[in-house]
Amino acid sequence: MTMEDFRQEFLADHPDFDNHEQVVFRRLPEFGVDVIIAIHNTVLGPALGGARLWKYPTKAAALTDVLRLSSGMTCKNALAGLEFGGGKAVVIADPQRDKSPALLRAFARTVNDLEGRYISGEDVGLTPPDMDILAEVTPYVRGGTKGPAGDPSPFTALGVFEGMKEARRFKFDDERIAGLTVSIQGLGNVGWRVAEMLHEAGAKLVVSDIRGDRVKEAETAFGATAVDPEKSHRVEADIYAPCALGAIINDETVDEIAAPIVAGSANNQLAASYHGQLLAERDILFAPDYVLNAGGVICLARQDETGPEIESRVRSIARTLRKIFETAARENLPTSMVAGQMARSRLKHRAG
Ligand code: NAD
After folding, report:
1. Which has the closest alpha carbon to 191: 163, 167, 157?
2. Range scoring the smallest mean pLDDT among 233-237, 240-244, 303-307
3. How far apart are CA 219 and CA 207, in angstroms?
4. Distance between CA 294 and CA 347 in Å, rounded?
5. pLDDT for the residue 106
6. Taking Cα atoms as reference points, which of 208, 231, 210 lies closest to residue 218?
7. Average of pLDDT values for 23-30?
8. Nearest CA to ligand 1 atom 32
9. Residue 148 in this model has a pLDDT that exceeds 60
10. Domain limits of the chain?
């Protein structure tokens, strides 16, 4: 048995293992940093997904995250109509303290060793300039400041904004944003831009972030009201938009969500799949995260196209959402389950 087979056997018992094709563990001893790259499925093409540089509380938490995020990427890329499979990387390090060009280059060498089976984009803790550093070492990188498309976050935000309008249209037959209250949790690359678009469209914003400076800026820029991050989901808003980290819809929060629509950019918002069912039972319309937030990966996958071409592809996220909402209503199923079924059906079709 090879070391790789041995690892796979151990992983098979992990609750979030979903027949991942390959999971690579690499220690970068000169930095005391561990890297995990999970390639979930390459039926549609090489695995494309962001790398997250984050200070996880435990290595087990990092493994759970990369397993869940990489299988989410398979569904995301399939439903966005891309010729890419699903994968994800985590670099277990503190973005403020540990991130350095040398660490990024060492991570890039690990990506390079996979010879193109995994292609990295940016995720939480990494920025477009960081991707430029990765690209000095490996061609298996998308994004960065120099490519034609550049930073994917504005495209992600655009998809989220269009998806919010679609959710309003479906549930209330009214896509107007003016006068609505939206509770945004997380004012980072995506959340901030979503806030900008909503503000321009006339929405009232309730915002939260663990970074006080971001919240203060939003109060000034958008006349937003600040709320404690722990209470963001309880705000009596028209839309709750989780734009920070995942598992925000869990046993504690699911009954407390006060908005009739949940639509945000954060990956893996449901802590477990049954939380999608619980939202549906409460008649809360959930826009599945990996459908809504596909704008960024569409931009990375289509980086040779022009901005307006990519934009029009991103706007088509609303059509996919509509199909999901309609099927879910017709078949009395949670939207999260319908999205999963649609993604698997594309994979099955391709696998023949
Ligand atoms: P980011 O790191 O720029 O922003 C995250 C923000 O959330 C930060 O301001 C951080 O301080 C804040 N935050 C962290 N924990 C919080 C908490 N408990 N409560 C409130 N705020 C908290 O990341 P981003 O690029 O804006 O991505 C946000 C989410 O969207 C992530 O889940 C990411 O995986 C997902 N996403 C991003 C993209 C993209 O194009 N950037 C694409 C798809 C999905």
Report:
1. 157
2. 303-307
3. 8
4. 17
5. 98
6. 208
7. 96
8. 266
9. no
10. 3-68+85-135, 153-351
Q: Is the CB of 208 under 6 A from ligand 1?
A: yes
CA of 192 to the centre of ligand 1 (A): 10
**pTM of the predicted protein model:** 0.93
Query: What would the two tokens of residue 53 be?
Result: 């540089």
| C-alpha triplet 74, 25, 113: angle, nearest 5° | 80
Whether 293 has a binding-site annotation, put simply, is no
Fold of 153-351: Rossmann fold (3.40.50)
Topology match between the domains 3-68+85-135 and 153-351: yes
- Catalytic (active site) residue 146: no
Rounded (5°) CA angle 229-233-236: 120
Q: Give the contacts of 323 (CB within 8 A, at least 6 positions apart).
A: 342
Q: Of 209, 268, 298, which is best to mutate to test ligand 1, by the most ligand atoms within 8 angstroms of its C-beta?
A: 209
Binned at pLDDT 50, 70 and 90, residue 74 comes out as very high
Give the strand order in the sheet containing 22-28: 22-28, 33-41, 85-92, 47-54, 118-122
Do 275 and 249 contact (CB within 8 A), yes or no?
Answer: yes
Q: How far is CA 253 from CA 187, 244, 271, 279, in A?
A: 20, 15, 10, 11
d(CA 90, CA 112): 15
Least confident of 132-141, 210-219, 304-313: 304-313
Record the tokens describing residue 241, joined without a space.
């938009």
Was 189 annotated as part of a binding site?
yes
Q: Which fold has domain 3-68+85-135?
A: Rossmann fold (3.40.50)
Structure tokens at 229: 């991050």
| Catalytic residue of the set 76, 88, 99, 204 | 88
Please answer whether residues 215 and 226 qualify as being in contact, where contact means their C-beta atoms are separated by less than 8 angstroms. yes
Does 191 show up as a binding residue in the annotation?
A: yes
